[in-house]
Amino acid sequence: MDEYKFEKGIRYEVFVGIKDKDSYMEHLDVSDFKRILTEICTEKKISFSLIKQMGGYTHSKGYTTETSLRVILIGIREEEVHRLADELKRIINTDAVLITKSDIEYCYV
Questions:
Q1: pTM (2 decimals)?
Q2: In terms of C-beta distances under 8 Å and separation of at least 24 residues, what long-range contacts does 35-43 make, across chains too?
Q3: pLDDT digit string (tens) for 2-39?
Q4: CA dihedral angle for residue 55, residue 78, residue 103, residue 92, rounded to 10 degrees
Q5: Could you tell me which of 13, 24, 11 has the C-alpha nearest to residue 67?
Q6: Distant-in-sequence, close-in-space partners of 55: CB < 8 Å, separation ≥ 6
Q7: Three-state secondary structure string covering the chain
Q8: Per mean pLDDT, which of 19-33, 49-63, 78-92 is the most reliable?
């Protein structure tokens, strides 16, 4: 397997719930989020992957579940991740966006 050369990098994951922070309703649907994310990433030339999932959390009014979207980013500067997360948080009007950071090794085959 000498033909595969792994590079070291950083993987960021941005977890975004799509419930509005004021009404706790999902006013935005997944296709709208995909369109918004694609527009932002195309403009800024950010490579991404998007995964739809379910999430749950406790907030000031109790516990809730919601559609949660995970944006995976590799090959991006940390400042860009924070700008993207801030922009998504503002557009969706959500309380918080979770960002995780992991050291990885990757290769293209």
A1: 0.90
A2: 36/88, 36/91, 37/71, 37/88, 40/84, 40/87, 40/88, 41/84
A3: 688 999 999 999 999 999 989 889 999 999 999 999 99
A4: 10
A5: 24
A6: 15, 17, 65, 66, 67, 68
A7: CCCCCCEEEEEEEEEEECCCCCCCCCCCCHHHHHHHHHHHHHHHCCCCEEEEEEEEEEECCEEEEEEEEEEEEECCCHHHHHHHHHHHHHHHCCCCCEEEEEEEEECCC
A8: 78-92
User: Rounded CA gap, 4 and 108, in Å?
Assistant: 8
Tokens in use for 34?
Answer: 């995909």
